[in-house]
Amino acid sequence: MIRGLARITTTAVGPYQSAVVRIGFSLTWLLFLLREWPHRAELYGPDGVWTWDMAQRLMAATDTGTPFSVLMWTDSPLWFEFVYGMSIIASLLLLVGWRTRTSALLFMVGVLSLQNRSIFMGDGGDNVIHLMAIYLVLTRCGQVWSLDKRRADRAREQDRSPDRDLVGIALWSVFGAALALVTALGKLDQLWGAVFWIFWLGQAAWWAARRQAPGEPRKVLDILANLLHNGAMLVIVVEVCLIYATAGWYKIQGSRWQDGTALYYPLHLDDFTPWPALSHTLAGAGLIVMAITYGTVIVQVAFPFTLFNRRVKNALLVAMIIEHASIAIVLGLPFFSLAMIAADAVFLPTNFLRWAGSRIAGLVPGRAGGQDAPRSGDPRDQDRKAEDEDQHRVRELGTTIGRPAAEPQLAQGEPGAAGDGYRV
Q1: Could you give the 3-state DSSP secondary structure of residue 113?
Q2: Which of 94, 315, 394, 395 has the greatest number of CB atoms lying within 10 Å of its CB?
Q3: Of 191, 219, 43, the residue nearest 119 (C-alpha)
């Protein structure tokens, strides 16, 4: 019990999984925005069939609160171009892991603003991106494979304090002024205004605690950050399981899925046949169509129940990734497939991600291997040294909760540890 409590409070679990989810969804959204650049005004802007007035009336008619979209502040074409451009920049910054807390928040603002402006645009993958953009804000997804991690490593090597971060302070000040302005103008409702102010004040509290009270207050804030991260990662896992479970059980109820012919029909639709010759050839193979139809249902229904068996889970995970890659090619849904593959990545084994990261890093000139990072938090991935560290963390947790520590200790997310604790 104590060991489990120490693990979820002193460790941000799944650093590699959260990083690959961050990279996957930011890359998917970035590629989508770039591909639709010539058509941006028709999809989300002033030239769209779904006009600004129609979107405004729809949002006003909702019973669960006004959906958030900065594009609804004004119908100015210049404002739309600014928001679209900032969405591209935020996606790129989140992809490379620069100031991940800020870029994740801006990424969420861009995703929600564009998708809520024109809710009928998308192919299903947009719903997944919509949800994951919110969850990523709560995660510490810059612990590995990020510019934040590199900056933390350099600060530690040069023995300088990360508190002297003029760029971070400037970003915090600029966004604080912008937040005060839009709040004064009444552009934010109470819910979203509270959310943004909590994030802004929380970052100030984090910086002040590390600089002025580096003992127990800093440890408490770090524990809260780890709890938020671990809770968000759990929600992501549950969300992906729900997506597959509901999709699989709904398919079971369909007569076309029951008789094994569901795949046959989209292969003859013009909207889903980017390669007509390939689609018609596949549709002509009845046995293959039936096997893929039944196989899809079996994999989707069974996957949530295989999480307790690593080997079976990994096998089905490979099958689902291949399935989505095939959907991208055969049915012409690349961004839906990329979004689902990015969601599937949360289940990838830590050892595989570390191996892949080291191989990719080895391709970069001047780099011999991947970045070092904190442990994954999975007890099956730890060696004997990690177990000794867990015992030390348990003792440290008792010190943190029971009485002030004798001297400051480094925790996950602080200078010299995870590398993303002092971002703005």
Answers
A1: helix
A2: 94
A3: 43
Closest CA to 113 of 39, 166, 192: 192
Determine the Cα–Cα distance for residues 319 and 244; give it in Å rounded to an integer: 13
Q: Identify the CA nearest to 216 among candidates 404, 397, 392.
A: 404
Say whether 180 sits in a helix, a strand or coil: helix
Rounded CA gap, 307 and 234, in Å?
13
Q: Locate tokens 């971002």: which residue?
A: 423
Q: Identify the band that residue 64 occupies on the pLDDT scale cut at 50, 70 and 90.
A: low
Over the stretch 107-150, which tens digit does the pLDDT of each residue have?
Answer: 999 999 999 999 888 888 999 999 999 999 999 999 999 999 99
Give the DSSP letter string of 264-294. GTGGG-GGG-SSHHHHHHHHT-HHHHHHHHH
- Better-predicted residue by pLDDT, 295 or 367: 295
For tokens 């007509």, the residue is: 276
Residues 6+ apart with CB under 8 A from 252: 258, 297, 301
Quote the tokens at residue 237: 């896992």
pLDDT digits over 212-247, tens only? 777 788 888 889 999 999 999 999 999 999 999 999
- Percentage helix, strand, coil for the chain under 3-state DSSP, each rounded to 5: 70, 0, 30
Using one digit for the tens of pLDDT, what is the confidence trace for 195-206?
A: 999 999 998 888
Q: What is the model's pTM?
A: 0.85
* Cα separation of the two ends of the chain: 34
Question: At a CB cut-off of 8 Å and minimum separation 6, what does 160 contact?
Answer: none
CA geometry: angle 293, 294, 297, nearest 5 deg: 95
DSSP assignment of 350-413, as one string?
A: HHHHHHHHHHHHHTSTT--S-------S-GGG--HHHHHHHHHHHHHHHHHHHS--SS----TT
